[in-house]
Structure formats: structure tokens, C-alpha cells
Amino acid sequence: MNVNAFTVDVEDWYQTNDFNFPVSRWEQFEDRVEESTLTLLGLLSRYRVRATFFILGAVAQKHPSLIRRIAAEGHEIACHGGYHRLLTEMNARQFREEIREAKGRIEDAAGVEVRFFRAPSWSIGPANYDMLQILEEEGFTVDSSIQPFRTPLSGVAGAPVKPFYPIIAGKTLRILEFPSTVLRIGGMPLPFSGGLYLRAMPYFVIRWALRQVGRTRAGMVYVHPWEVDQGQPRLRASPLIRFAHYYHLDRTIEKLDRLLQDFRFAPLGEVIRDQSYEAVELI
Q: Does the predicted model carry a pTM greater than 0.90?
């Protein structure tokens, strides 16, 4: 059975794309990311598991001591962008400037070099594959921003489910893409490995799916600190948004605990080390 990657997207509850609050309003909301991240650190420590933490530049700027602690506990430090803006809402110049700033803030706080990236809400797709080229030019060696299925926000239907080197406009990039983990059943993708999918699905389905994935490749689990924070404010929003953000927050820790009991996990960098991957054209 393969060792799986455990990843955390470090953002606060009000910084998500669920609510889309402008950065100018962030100061008016209760800041809870430190406490909820410490909850995840405690859980990982209990099982002696190290993970990859994809951190917002804004969080690193406001909570540098938290970032230093994550690094000091042996976890891998990575970048989640600056302000959780969808990449589809930025042009190439804006994206380059934002990731340079975010990368610098995270590196300053953690004291380590940052080479891994994940886009907010998996927002790399056919309309902006050129962002992968920019990431490579800015020193990133691994990206984890593509979902191999479509959602209202993002995704690439038919994208590889295994890690691969993207071929874009005939050019093979050196940056490795590690897509979100899904199980293909009869050609249809079953997402289960993080976010709402993990919170909503019964644990026995998650365990079965990850075991099936583990027969042929490493899987990847992802979680956000706000998903283990039952005390966060409950905002008035549409039923769909409330479902996506608040559904079964009370079950996240329990499911993560069981995953850590039932499977082996490591940081993303260790999972891909000494492995060979194919180049695949993105269309």
C-alpha cells in the first residue's frame, strides 16, 4: 500500500471563496486560524505524522510565529497564494506579483525555501494553464492545483489522476503536477479526499476509496483549519453556501483521526521522492 500525502490549506474561515469577502473587510472578522491550526498540529503530532502546509501569504504576514511553529515541528512549508483569490480572476502580471510577495512572506516567517504551490480552490484549468509556466519561472517545482473533474469554480475533466509533468503548447514543463485525489469508477470521478467531500461522505466510503487508490498510486488528503473549528461564526448566506462551508464540521476531526489510524501519511515531498512520472499534454 502506498504512503499518502497529508496536506493542509492554511486559511481562516472568512478568507475562503465561499464568502468572497474583499480583503478590505477582513479586519472586521474574528481571527481563528491560529487556534484551529494548532488543533491540526496536535492531531498530527499524536500520530507522529508530518504534512505539507500550503499557507496564505496573508496568514504568514499576520501570524509569523504560527508559521515558524509549523516548520519547527518538521512539516513541509508551501504556498497557497497571497489572499485566496482565484487564479481565474488574475492576469499573468497580477499572479506573478502576488506569488512573489506571498512566497517571500512565507519564507521570511518559516526560514525555509518554498517550492510547492496550491491555487485557491484548485483554480488552474484550461483557461489559465499559462500559470503553471509562471510558477516554474518563479522557482516552484511542484504544483497541486488541478482537479481531474469539473466544478462550478474549477477543474479539468479528463485530466490525469496520477502526478505528471504538464505539456502545454508543445512544451514539457519541469514543474510536477500532483492533482487532487479522486477514484475513477467506470470512467466517472469520485472525489472524496478533502473539503466538503470528506466531511459529507461516510467514513467507510472514504476508507474504501483511498484503499482502492492505494493499489496503484499515492493518494492525497487535504483539509482546512476552519474545517475543525466548530466555534466559528455562522453567517447568513444562501443554503448552498451554508451547506458547503458548515456541513458536518463536527465530524472532521473524527474522520481525520481514523484516517491517521488506518493509513500511512507523509509530506508531499517525501511521497514523490525518487518516483518517475510521465509527461502529459493538457488540452
A: yes
